[in-house]
Amino acid sequence: MFGELFKEENSFDNTTNNSTTTSIDGNPIDEPPKPRGPLKLVGFKNQGSTCYLNALLQTLFLTPEFRDGILQLTSDELGYSMDADSDPSNQRKIPYQLQLIFARLLLLNQNTCSTEGLTESFGWRNDEELQQHDVQELSRIFLDAIEASLVGTSSETLIQNLFKGKIVNQIVCDKCNRISERDEDFLDLTVSVTNNMKLLENSFSNTFKHAETMSGKNQYFCEQCNQLVDAKKRAKLKTLPPILTLSLLRFNYHKETFSRYKETSPFAFPFHLDMTPYVNCRSINSCGHYSLYSVIVHSGSAHRGHYQAHIRDVNKLGYSDIELTNEEIFPDFSKFIQTSETVPVIKNDIMNKKISDPINPEVILARIVAKHESMRLDELGQALLKATGSSWSKVYRKQYGTMAKFLRSNCETFNLDVATRTVSLCKSAHEKFLSDIALKCAENVEDIDKHSADASLLPNNSEYEDLTNSELGNAMGCCKLVNPNSCCCYEICSEEKPGTGMHWFNFNDENIKTISVNEIPKEFSGRKCAYMLFYRRNDLSSSFEWFEKIPDFIKDMMNNENIHLMEWRTKYDLAVNRLDLHIYTEEILIMSNGLIKCVELDGYLMSFYQHQQVSELLSEIQYNLDRMIKKPKRKKLQLTKKTTKDIKISPLEMTNLNILKILPHGGIHLYESLPVGREIALKEAGIKNNSSLFLWNGKSVLNQTIQIGIEYEAISVKLICHYDRNSRCYLSFKASQSECLLLVRSYASKLLNTSSNEIVFQRKIKGNESHNEDADDCIEVIDNDISSIVYGYEENFTAFCKGCQLQEVQRNSELDETGDFKNALSDKCHNKTVHVQLEIINYDNEILQESIYELDIDEKMSIEALKSFVLCKLNLQEIINIEECRFSLHSKQSVLCLYDSITVSSLPFTNDDIFLLERGKAPTNEQVLIFLKPPNELKCIELLLSKSSKISEAFERILKELNLNGDEWHLRKCNRYGDLTYLLDDNNKTITEAKISNGDIIALAPGKLAEKGKMRLCIWIYPKCLTLPELYNKNIITSLFKSVDLDQSSRPSEAPSILGHVELKREDTLYDLQRKIKAIQTDKKMPDKYCIRIIDKGLLTKALPQGDNNTVTLKRLKIQPSTQLGIQPSTMEIGKEDVIIKVVFHIPNTRHYTSPVEYVCSRTTANLHGNIAKCIGFEDNELILAKRTNDAMIWSMIEPDQSSNLNAKKKVQKKGRKTTGKKKNIKENSVQLKDSDTVAAKIVSEELKYTDSSIDLQDFFTDEDILLKQKLKASNNQRSSSNAKMKDNNINQEKSPNHSIQAKESQLKIHVGNFSTLQQAEE
């Protein structure tokens, strides 16, 4: 109606979301809602701009008659029967969601409540909750929707009886006095707010007392006079509802400026409202006196704003610490009205009554004493002050004297013991007082609402005589949380306080606070002012028995939600106190450029709690060490003569835990150690969440001594030593802060073979802090004063002899952007840069052995000339004989021993390849140097072979070299990782004919080669298979779920073993295969009945045909020479179209499964539910099946067979009626199975035993699946986060900061089903 007129002001502030997110095992867990606060009332979450809905809902909730009418609806009336055949179209969603909200506000132990379920029941699907609307419009539409939803229920007339009234519109003819009347229902009365209407009474008088004259062009046509006549038009209230709603029209449209504006001028309204003068006296049939109980306030302008509500707690559901004085119980708003000549004071008998007029003190004192039987005189004075808000001396002393004197003068009522100063009631006057007390109260407290009276002063109130103790608590008390272990959500505190139902609260979405009734007159005017008023008729009685009116199914639902909240809070508390620690070991470390780097950056994640001891942490890590050691990466074969030390980890020696950090250069460093020998908690030890810890022996890592502490943090140093313009040496190493420059000078002196005093050292400084990031790097010449040097984590140094030209060196010592060394190519077109590493020099330091020399040479130079050039350039010709060394070209994939006669230009090498000068004799042109891989070893042996020698000769030489027998071995080529590739089976071929070239790797593989034209198949024998019909039944499965060692319950104890080998042609049949297998000579006993299955990746998969199908050839069965077969004892009958699958059963309330068992079934999933259920003794509708796709970590649901349902539908179809469209195929959406597929089964009856389980029935994911998915999701989010931020920045830059984007106006709608037809059908 008003479009974006009521757009939320500062909506981003009103949508408060205080929840934080932590995680358990990588699963995020949000912060649970907080328990109820001391006020015991619950607020509503703002969904974006739903403050108008929140204010109205709080008003309706604190309207006892409306709340009780909603709560008393049964599940059958709402259409939410537990019957599985219930029709969703019969569900009354709006009343049901209201019932849930009211029950949560009463019983749920949380401080906020969501309205998402209610807005979804409205049919809001297009972000309607993000658009604010007029609360007056919502009130009418919402009440109409509720009324339409309650048709045919016990609360069908709830809205009509509570909120609807009638206005009679009259037109009186001035000529014949004929009265024409028309009745009109209303849910709320609109009140005009203008500068001329500053009082509610003035607006009512103008509307319902004054008549409008219809004359001139606006004359009325009287049917009795049969002509146009002058007439009087007026409106009268015919009937008034118990809940009177007034809408103040504060928003108007300016016709001259064509703009909206909000009327903020003063408009006063009373607390007590007398509607009798405005009601048609002939039709009035109820009380016309009302009391204010809710004020919805709008703060803001005509274009944006926010709603909140001031509501009186009629039923005393909340707790307020505001003391109820006479001013709170009997408020007078007249004193807040600014009087002037044009603004008369509100005249109301109740409001003008002097509240300070003292009530007869005999009545008040008698009530207090009767309640306590007897009390001391000073206690009586305090009780009087608490009850009336005024002391005896202030109100009564001037008229009656002291309290003791007054008590003595009324000796017929009171007994005063002067000695003990105690007061009690006389026995003779006790009964008389109780019988006359009501009359005395009526005489002294005239026209005061009985609900505003001090009920706590009545010792025997007849209203509560028939109530039990708990019911009396419901009537007189406030909510409080009971024992958390109890099933009950809340009980009612029996604490009594005066002024029942007179406390006021401010509801501002999630925030609730107590206010004084005197805060309401502040909303008469201004930017924040009253917008809707709700009055209760004074003759309405407040019902306190709300708990009994809640249906049992709602109570059970709230009880379960409270239990879930308790578990959620417990789980979150554990997560907050939990420490996720990243544990690192030597197994995931590598050495790179002198730095120790981590292969697995996240380490191994383990969870502990802050209160656990450090010793427990160490024990747990040592216990899980086998799981922490990752599967080692594939290692390359060692083709060089370098010896590498194997690193062996001894878990018993790993007793030290140190804080680990990954430095900016990628290397790790260790800091303070944990006190593993002391009993100290992790929190006290200073361990924080997501800390990284390193488990080691405390001495060395990767055979290197480690010094811990910040002063020993490693610096990544890159040193370039220049010999001349075309020759230089690169060296990368690590150093500490104190020894950095000392090592640079020492290494440069050894590499340049001169004294450090004859060397010039330069340091490259990346960027200057005073410049921007694009500033050029500068060069700093290092002198003898090194005390002022501050090192970073990465340092680049250049060294050259003093005779070298500085400009030439600087041009050749540049580094690329990534920090790697850049080639400095000569301008000559025939020159080429090679990288040489010297293995022939035995340096005293292993670090110098890794230095790389970069030389600019002529590409037409031969390898023999290159050797002479390197030895001469480095002054090594007198130390090393040129005939005793050779060059080999090392790349990532191969090692090639070079012939001396070839040229550099003929070699296919890149800038990353290394020319290694090593000791040894280079092969001649008639020889090849191969690398021989012995069985089960990584280190290869060099072997020089003649190109004209045959494979058989090479094979005999290899066997002789390794001292092996040749019956069960053969030769194969392999790659750098030792994977077998090409078979060398032709012994008559030469090395050249077999395409064996220089640098190839030949492996000696186990196994005898088959004859030419035959296949040699390896046959394995497996233990007896565990099948589903033989292993499981209903009792075993039920007991298995309760077992602790589920994984060991059905796991085979025997491992497969090799039975032997058979040689067959591809044209041989399955019968020939079976005959050959039986002829194998072995000491293993062959089973009587067995099946032959293909082994793929170590697992038994497809079974070969049985029975009469033994004439099929091996070629047709796709048996290859590399195929391995398994013999498995089995009595299973496997058909031609059958497959063997693995069946696992889900363990309820976990993410684990039983060990797999095998089951023979068809490739399609038709009747799979029924067949598995029949095997284990369950009904087919009790099973939920899913198939796992291992590669994609996806579980595909297997739907049950629907053929029976389709047949039933065909019978119901009328004869002669033809079906149109394509015929539906039942197998169209079925899941296809293949051998060794895993099918998981959930037994519904067992799953439903755990009602508090968070795992859905269709959720088959394991913990490993979830963890892998989260890692993939995290990596994807990390890649796209930068792009998203850039897009957001671009959008924010395009928006003007002072420009408010106008949202498209939308009409407020609530979708309600048609329940009138349902009522007619039931009738």
UniProtKB/TrEMBL annotation:
USP domain location, by residue?
42-538
Q: Where is the composition biased (Basic and acidic residues)?
A: 1-10
Region span, Disordered: 1-36, 1205-1225, 1273-1307
| Sequence ranges of Polar residues compositional bias | 1273-1305
Quote the InterPro entries the UniProt record gives: Papain-like_cys_pep_sf (IPR038765), Peptidase_C19 (IPR050164), Peptidase_C19_UCH (IPR001394), UBL_USP40 (IPR057763), USP (IPR028889), USP_CS (IPR018200)
Basic residues: which segments have biased composition?
1208-1225
UniProt superkingdom: Eukaryota
Locations of Low complexity compositional bias? Answer: 14-23
Q: What protein name applies here? A: USP domain-containing protein
Q: What organism does the UniProt record list as the source?
A: Clavelina lepadiformis (Light-bulb sea squirt)
